[in-house]
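Can anyone check this?
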Amino acid sequence: MRELVVLGTASQVPTRTRNHNGYLLRWDGEGLLFDPGEGTQRQMIHAGVSASQITRICLTHVHGDHCYGLPGVLSRMVLDGVQHPVELHFPASGGDVVRALVSLASPGLDLRLHPHSGPGPIAPGLEVRPLRHRIDTFGYRLAEPEGRTLLPDRLAAAGIAGPDIARLQREGTVRGVRLADVSVPRPGQRFAFVMDTAECDGAGELADGVDLLVAESTFSDDDAALAARYLHLTAGQAGALASSAGAGTLVLTHFSSRYVDVGVLAHQAVARAGRAAAAVVAQDLDRIPLPKRQRESWLKGGLAAPAVPVSVDEDVNPGAVVGMQQDHEQHKVEQQVYGDDVGQ
């Protein structure tokens, strides 16, 4: 299963209907928890998310609305008897804060700390890029390796059937027939998490060609001066990011409590995204499935798209997504505070 479970969508100040940040990406056998703010443990209960599903925790930065829920989540995992290792990724400059938060949690969890200080891969399939905020901040990108989709008509014409299909997938050639002769490229799914940043190259690199882009949308375009001052994105800038990056679906979140109705933010994002991306205004406890892979490769090289789906054993390289070994089980806004929430 691959889906995003939204645990919280507020920025610095939560509201009656929006908790602080928290996002669980369920990706096959792994659960990646991004930016657990205050109250994340309780939101997990409301969302029906088990602590045992979490295998990685990824912090973009150490502002409180993105990390103060960490001790509670870790303690809950200990209470639930989680036995598998949990990888914790965070900016190296925030190490003192992260270690202080970890020290507050109940002992007994096999927690492995992975600070990072520059762009690049941090785990198989998972990489980071620096963003532009008031403290060191990194966004995350998860990418599945590309595979190939087999074409039954070409398999039949080449006389490849039965066990020879699996052999062709393993070895790349059978009786002079190459895998490339009877298949087309299948793009791997890609996900990006861009939080607390002004416009920057890192955001564009993370979002490039992803199927699902989670992006902060703290301010309205009408408050662009505030966004520039506090180094956040406006809704329109989030839409433009999705458009220029060719993202499939844009998920807007991290809303300032100053906006009683975030519908205006949605309109601004859609106006800038155009037809390039579908836009979703995240609500607490939403479940957003990853969009299906695009079959652009059918048209490349002059191949005609089939009238009906005919792929065989679509996942030619199963289990190679991000080196995951564990297999665990798987709106109207009423503000509480009317003030000058500028987002941390």
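Reply from J.R.: I decoded it. Residues 295-339 have pLDDT under 50 and may be disordered.
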